[in-house]
Amino acid sequence: MKFNNNFKRQVNHPMSVTQQLINNQSYKLKTTSLTGILVAGVFFADKCRAEYGINFPPPAADVAQEIYNIHMLTMQITTVLLLIVFGFVFYSLYYHRKSRGFQADQDFHNSWFGNWSWVVVPVMVLGVDLTIAGKADAVLKKVWDVPKAENILDVKVTGHQWWWEFDYLDHGIKVESRYVPEKESGDLYLREVDNRLVLPTGQKIRFLHTSADVLHAFWVPELAVKKDAIPGYVTETWAELNREGVFRGQCAELCGTWHSRMPIVVESVSPQQFATWVDDQKAIKVAAAAEASADKTWSMDELMAKGKTLYDTKCAACHQVTGVGLPPAFPALKGSAMATGSIEAHLEIVIKGKEGTAMQPWGSLNDLEIAAIVTYERNAWDNNTGDVVQPSDVKQAR
Amino acid sequence: MTTTTLNHDEAHHHDMPTGWRRWLFSTNHKDIGTLYLLFALTMLFLGGASAMLIRLELFQPGIQLLDPDLYNNLVTNHALIMIFGAVMPAAAGLANWMIPMMIGAPDMALPRMNNLSFWILPAAATMLILSFIVPFFPGGGTQINTGWTLYPPLSVQVGMSMDFLIFAIHLLGISSVLASINIIVTLLNMRAPGMTLMTMPMFCWTWLVTAFLLILVVPVLAGGVTMLLFDRHFGTSFFDAAGGGDPVLFQHLFWFFGHPEVYILLLPSIGVLSHVIPAFSRKPLFGYKSMVGAMLTVATIGMVVWAHHQYTIGMSLGAVTYFMIGTILISIPVGLMIFNFIATMWRGAMTFETPMLFAVAIVLMFTFGGLSGVMLAVVPADMQYHDSMFVVAHFHYVLMPGAVFGLFAGVFYWLPKWTGHMYDETLGKIFFWTNVIGFNITFFPQHFLGLAGMPRRIVDYNMMFTEFNVISSIGAIIFGLSHLLLLYIVIKTIRGGKKAESRAWEGAKGLEWELDSPPAFHTWTVAPQIK
């Protein structure tokens, strides 16, 4: 794989002019010295949001800002503590060495300090601990308590191997979000998807997390939201976006082969734009439903064309565009008994999945989509069975 | 208190066996200690090789060397080999060698069990290695792509190599529990007359606490993976919501073991430090009693904060608050330990031989790792750090200095005692500097990667993460190759070198330094009297 050496990093966050100026300056900082970066990271973090990133990206929600603040606070406290420890150690290393003729103080541990340090030190550390815990506790309550606002927007986030499904429960809209291969995503490789999670600003959003197969985790740094998607259970988080922009995250819980290919892209838009987007999505959905339910007999070519598009998006991650799969985890379809044998068995495995494997049920697709995929699988890659599966066959098989 | 005194004549009936019988049938604590250490050294190189492959893959964005499943297989094996194969056996090797010599006992209390607990290890390691290579044979199923945490449902999808791994964990667990029982019995019953619990060497204390921790938590892991085995093959659904189970239950069982495991890896090295720092500062350990107290506190609190590894699973507000505060409080005893080490160095007359260099590096770098641990404990901020490269950086800063450097310090400190030869100090120092510098170049940049949004356990990443990954991989090459020097130094010292005196180091204190270097095959056959 070749990459452009002159990397252009994503700068999709709408930023003020001053902020961009600052960023351009700090970009020159580059990697002169690691210590320099640590110090800079701690004390000038605002200036150091350079494109290659050494700290959190600028938060896009008030709670995320508070999380950012507590992160900076603990980092500063711990840095000060670290400097104190380093200070004492290096002082001692320099002065209390035999080569300088220093005589060991054999009674040091019998001094007042030696007798009471076991009380003094823990009390001091406790003080620091309580400072951190107290600040954290206040923020924690805000993060954890999902508000009960009337007009809260519910989005069900379902993790799949290896894509995300977003259900807008209030609008009856479903968005399937998949990674885009490098040749289309370019510099946004592994950070771009085909369909984004569109969300309005200024409205409280509740995310309901679950999974269709294994554990996943939804993570978008700008929202400071991270929650595991657990099959059979629903967990919740919330956010309220305070600015428009495109925010990128990734799946954060190891979910198998293509864990690295589960980006999450949030597109934050104004409420008006969001309303327009919702209407568009509804219209598309109505049109698709009408097409699928039409009592029409489809030709082989129509089904193959539809089937190829659907297969390449939904099935190719595992079974590969060429149909050869990635055995033993993902069996080949090309020339396989499943794709060239009984149509009923083929339909059943697509609709119901196969337990104990990564093959999930695809029954939520409509009859036409399944018919197209199965027809495609039975005729592509020299499978050439000549079988044409119609939506009516799928309806029967359900 | 019971003490064992062997009759002088009786001891001489045990001739030193020769050839393979000496090792396979060994009941001698020194020979078994050597076996443990050699086993750990072998595993260190296996685990290290897998880490080097991981870092080579991450050198550039894109998938160059490893397919994603092989990558995650290596990630899994790297962790398991290092924890169960390298660090724990190395610590057990030190315990076997040193505890009887330190407390004036002729051997471990249960020598035949000692033999068994070692010889289970090669079998377990074979199972572990089989779990890695079985998928490459026809019909071998899929690779273990779950990470060492083995979370279901992903671990239920994996092919038969997961079963090899589960049985390997069972064997490793049996071996550790047997070794722990032996150490506890030895420490409680075989101390020389006059040596009380509160005057025994600190290394013995750290191992006493470690052994109790092992006995308390290893069976929980064994139970957890057995339930996993049942879910995989016998139709139970402990971890499957569809059958009334809960995938998160496994995480609780795993981390109930996994968090105390951190202290199991750490404490023996803290014990080594408690000998090395006083020896090279030429003054006694500062705060013996507070050290013991701190250790017991760490072990106790450490047992009840496991769920800070799982802040994102959706626990209640009350639960996460508890786990957050409990975790932050661990900084108190750990802080006290670090403080005691610094106070031991303070106003000492320090020299900087290789063991002391490692000790100083531990004090500095372990403090750093501990402090990033405080950051991770803060739940709201952990919503960003969790499962990112920041975590990877953090736990390597805790476990490399905290556990592995402590073992290096112990090896260099006691190598003259074991072999009768001084190691080459110049080479030792070169090893120290390449090792520590390589380590920091490898892991320091990973903090930034995590903060910027790079998840852990991904085989491929966006170009925005390139710079720090390149630096990290270059560091890893330096770090990894530096261990060849360690191997060379160890072999060279075994084969010859300047003759070591019985008290190899000027400031070294303790019964082990009263014995010859190398010590006789059987030592302390007459127990010393402690005033």
From TrEMBL, chain B:
Membrane disposition: Multi-pass membrane protein
Keyword Transmembrane helix: yes
InterPro entries: Cyt_c_oxase-like_su1_dom, Cyt_c_oxase-like_su1_sf, Cyt_C_Oxase_1, Cyt_c_Oxase_su1_BS, Cyt_c_oxase_su1_dom, Cyt_c_oxidase_su1_bac
Listed PROSITE patterns: COX1, COX1_CUB
GO biological process: aerobic respiration; electron transport coupled proton transport; respiratory electron transport chain
One term under GO cellular component: plasma membrane
GO molecular function: cytochrome-c oxidase activity; heme binding; metal ion binding
A Pfam family hit: COX1
Top-level class of the enzyme under EC nomenclature: translocase
Compartment(s): Cell membrane; Membrane
Domain (Cytochrome oxidase subunit I profile) ranges: 23-531
Annotated catalysed reactions: 4 Fe(II)-[cytochrome c] + O2 + 8 H(+)(in) = 4 Fe(III)-[cytochrome c] + 2 H2O + 4 H(+)(out)
Sections of the chain in a coiled coil: none
Function: Cytochrome c oxidase is the component of the respiratory chain that catalyzes the reduction of oxygen to water. Subunits 1-3 form the functional core of the enzyme complex. CO I is the catalytic subunit of the enzyme. Electrons originating in cytochrome c are transferred via the copper A center of subunit 2 and heme A of subunit 1 to the bimetallic center formed by heme A3 and copper B.
Family recorded in the similarity comment: Belongs to the heme-copper respiratory oxidase family.
Record protein name field: Cytochrome c oxidase subunit 1
Encoding gene, per UniProt annotation: ctaD
